[in-house]
Specification:
- The protein has 827 residues and is of the alpha+beta class.
- 12% of the residues lie in helices and 30% in strands.
- The protein has 12 helices and 49 strands.
- The strands form 12 sheets. Strands 4, 5, 7, 8, 9 and 10 form a 6-stranded antiparallel sheet that branches. Strands 13, 14, 16, 17, 18 and 19 form a 6-stranded antiparallel sheet that branches. Strands 22, 23, 25, 26, 27 and 28 form a 6-stranded antiparallel sheet that branches.
- Helix 9 runs parallel beside helix 10.
- The longest helix has 14 residues.
- The N terminus is likely disordered.
């Protein structure tokens, strides 16, 4: 793969990812289509399956036969799924992919041999018409075209929108302008706050949204709505030839959707609501021992860790109060990382993942709260008053960060008064860092030794008034020193990320696919766990397991579509012979790139090519290297100034791990029986259709049986336990896992671990693991794969840092794909 080079901060990165992750890089379904070049044709493919498919995709020669790139959707619920592409004139082959099954279009004009004993459908795209419809559902009808057909006579349509504030730009986007967010500007010529745009549209059905400063907004007054493919709704407008005489007005002054009295009262209540409203959210968990509950929703960009809920009176009910402008909001509770629907909500909406978001409609029935800068008042609800790492972060020996927040538009400035080691009171301004729809966040960094004792209070200034945050609440006068927050290392233990990790440039390597440096250790599949799965059946094809070596390194065609399968899926069971010797050969190259840390996917012995199914944690896979070769590699890497981090999955083993095999064979007579959570025994011979019926396994995948850390509770309830005294540790298994740091960090000499799905392992175990890591190598680096709020896992008794998948992905998707945020907010 090509190297990604970003010059400026001299960040030079090349990343190799497992093949099964690469599909995540595709553009999300439902994204506004890209405006076609002149001469291209809008082609709508339609298909009516017999049942209700879980996933339906379109694959063909136009997208390299990728089976998960172009999702087909049924927005109107008529059972006919469609996908629209912009194609140049020419001949194309295609199939529909229904829940993994490749299906020819029964309504295609012609067919051709697909090379697997079946037929590809063929469409001939000609440039003599602007759009085409391909397929006809069940073969006896036709789908509505994505581009409306002219029936004679255009209709004048006025779109109207009144934003809450004063946006710098408002545009209209929809199916009539290829969802361009800049082609149709809306203007407020008379300054009344209402933005308008006038179009002439042919009769037909159109979907649209308003775009204000990059945010895509549904017209709540529309007569009809359709899923936008991102968990929200597009507004729908139907234009008929009967409207030609009088025209149409769409938007805030248009007709309301028809409904009962209850809907009319809700609409009137929403219209009557002005300013901000006080909205209280409550949640009572059903299980004890909950560590963190957050509220996430459309009001805080679905950021999991932004809005903490607390149980200040200890009655078991967690609460948080937000100030929200009138409108409809979707939300969920996040309970120790698990996204939970509020079943008491007044309404629900599809969350896009097969579940439901809760919906709350904020209207005139909620208490009105008026806040503005300069009025000498401060909204005190949900200002942080508990000192933790989100308020104080001693992140190096000489630097400590202090952070707080205030309601947007409420105060004119935020600062901090403080005293270091009993010295006089000083003042420093806090810098606004970011904001969501409720809060603006402020931060400052003091250059002080981490061992200092700091008394401090955040000061909020508005008009002639000043307010001070203290552990006992918000005070209106400057607090005495003993009334302030107190930071000291004995109250909030500092933890420092090793400099080599904090300032490192990491290069991820999927070892089986990087470079083959030693052909003598290429997989020969002589291990017992490959028995019976290395030969093809007489027909030469199988959709089951077929482990084999690809002799030609450049032969990568099977990675997109296997020549040995009939379902068009990739070659999951291929090996190429990549090894540590190959990486060692390229150390000078990596050093030249500026790489300072290599992050390997798992190196432990395992059956798969990805190695997330360990056979034994304490053995390096022999097809990567023997121990002597690996030690030589680590030594040479260190000579080049390159550290080594290795991926480690400790919540599950592989189903060919020695402990699992012993338990499967002997049942309760096995000394390893309690290492797993068994549901039925004995297990059937051969493949098990539903492995989770027999043992607890990761997301139902039989090759990943989950380890049983706590003998006193089920696996799904053991992960959030911090106090080991409240658990019954499976000590024989734990002691085996604690041999990993001495082996990999000590004997083999690596420098740290990337920990896979650590949120599915109990906190108390990570404390034991961190203690052992620090004992073996004090400057080792631990990185956890936490997708949401990472605070519970960051600290001196857990990890140094976490992967930033979610907090990189979300703003990138919001800005580039959904176009739902402004450039300023993205920055």
């Amino acid at each position: 793969m090509k190297n990604i080079r970003i010059f400026g901060n001299i960040l030079i990165i090349s990343i190799l990812l497992p093949l099964f992750l690469l599909s995540c890089a595709k553009a999300p379904a439902g994204a506004p289509p890209v405006k076609a070049e002149p001469g291209m044709v809008s082609v709508t493919f339609s298909y009516q399956p017999e049942g209700d498919p879980g996933n339906l995709f379109l694959a063909g020669s136009f997208n390299d036969w990728t089976d998960s790139d172009i999702r087909m959707q049924d927005p109107d619920g008529d059972g006919i799924y469609t996908a629209t592409l912009k194609l140049e004139p020419g001949e194309y082959q295609y199939k529909f992919v229904e829940d993994g099954n490749w299906i020819s279009d029964p309504a295609a004009e012609s067919y051709t041999d697909d090379g697997y004993g079946g037929q590809n459908s063929v469409v001939d795209v000609t440039g003599d018409k602007p759009f085409m419809i391909v397929g006809a559902g069940s073969g006896n009808g036709s789908a509505e075209p994505a581009t409306p057909v002219s029936t004679g006579g255009r209709v004048k349509v006025r779109f109207m929108y009144q934003p809450d504030g004063q946006p710098s730009g408002v545009n209209l986007a929809g199916s009539f302008n290829d969802w361009s967010d800049s082609a149709t500007p809306m203007t407020d010529d008379d300054g009344d706050g209402i933005y308008t745009a006038d179009l002439e549209l042919e009769p037909g059905r159109y979907e649209y949204k308003f775009v204000a400063d990059g945010s895509w907004i549904t017209d709540a007054t529309a007569e009809e709505f359709a899923d936008d493919g991102f968990g929200g709704k597009n507004s729908v407008l139907t234009v008929s030839s009967e409207d030609a005489a009088k025209g149409l007005t769409v938007g805030m002054s248009g007709d309301k959707p028809e409904g009962g009295d209850e809907d009319a009262e809700k609409d009137q209540s929403m219209d009557a609501a002005k300013g901000l409203r006080k909205v209280n959210f409550t949640f009572q968990p059903r299980i004890s021992g909950v560590q963190n509950i957050f509220l996430a929703g459309t009001f805080n960009d679905w950021k999991e860790g932004k809005t903490r809920m607390t149980d200040d009176d200890g009655d078991g009910t967690y609460e948080v109060t937000l100030l929200l402008p009138p409108g409809s909001y979707q939300y969920k509770f996040v309970v120790d990382g698990k996204w939970t629907t509020d079943q008491k909500a007044e309404d629900f909406a599809d969350d896009g993942f097969g579940g439901k978001n809760s919906v709350i409609n904020v209207d005139a029935g909620f208490e009105e709260v008026n806040i503005e800068k300069g009025d000498g008042k401060m909204m005190r609800a949900d200002i942080p008053l508990t000192m933790d790492y989100s308020m104080v972060n001693p992140f190096s020996e000489n630097k400590t960060a202090f952070s707080t927040r205030a309601h947007i538009g409420d105060v004119e400035g935020v600062g901090m008064i403080y005293s270091v080691n009993g010295s006089g009171i000083k003042f420093v301004d806090l810098v606004p860092e970011e904001s969501d729809k409720v809060f603006r966040y402020y931060r400052t960094v003091l250059e002080i030794p981490y061992s200092s004792r700091v008394r401090f209070s955040f000061r909020y200034s508005d008009g002639d008034a000043q307010f001070y945050a203290t552990p006992d609440g918000i005070a209106e006068g400057e607090p005495a020193s003993e009334e302030m927050f107190l930071y000291s290392p004995d109250l909030l233990e500092p933890f420092f990320t090793p400099d080599w990790g904090r300032h490192g440039v990491l290069y991820q390597i999927f070892p089986e696919r990087f470079r083959n440096g030693d052909k003598s250790n290429d997989p020969d599949f002589s291990e017992f766990y490959y028995e019976g799965v290395t030969e093809l059946p007489p027909g030469g094809k199988t959709n089951g397991e077929y482990f084999h070596l690809v002799e030609q390194w450049q032969n990568i065609g099977g990675l997109s579509r296997s020549p040995y399968r009939t379902d068009g899926k990739p070659d999951y069971y291929s090996f190429y012979g990549g090894d540590i010797a190959g990486v060692m050969e390229k150390l000078p190259y990596l050093h030249e790139l500026g790489v300072t840390v290599i992050y390997f996917n798992p190196l432990n012995q395992a059956r798969s090519n990805h190695k997330y199914d360990p056979v034994d944690y304490l053995k390096i896979d022999p097809h990567f290297a023997d121990e002597d070769t690996f030690k030589e590699f680590v030594s040479r890497a260190h000579e080049h100034g390159i550290r080594i981090i290795v991926d480690l999955a400790l919540n599950h083993t592989g189903n060919y791990h020695f402990a699992f095999l012993d338990g499967r064979e002997k049942g309760r007579k096995s000394k390893y029986w309690d290492w797993y959570e068994w549901k039925r025994w004995p297990l059937p011979e051969g493949d098990i259709p539903n492995p989770s019926d027999y043992y607890d396994c990761w997301w139902g995948f039989g090759i990943h049986p989950n380890l049983n850390f706590d003998l006193s509770r089920p696996n799904d309830q053991e992960n959030n336990i911090r106090d080991i005294e409240k658990a019954k540790p499976n000590m024989e298994m734990v002691e085996y896992l604690l041999e990993i740091p001495p082996y990999w960090l000590g004997e083999l000499g690596i420098d740290g671990f990337r920990l896979d799905v650590p949120n599915e392992v109990p906190f108390w175990f990570w404390e034991m693991f961190r203690e052992e890591v620090d004992r073996v190598k004090p400057d080792a680096y631990l990185v956890g794969e936490i997708w949401g709020n990472a605070m519970p896992w960051l600290g001196p008794d857990c990890f140094h840092s976490t992967m930033n998948y979610k907090y990189f992905r979300d703003p990138v998707v919001d800005f580039f794909a959904l176009r739902s945020t402004s450039a300023e907010r993205f920055d």
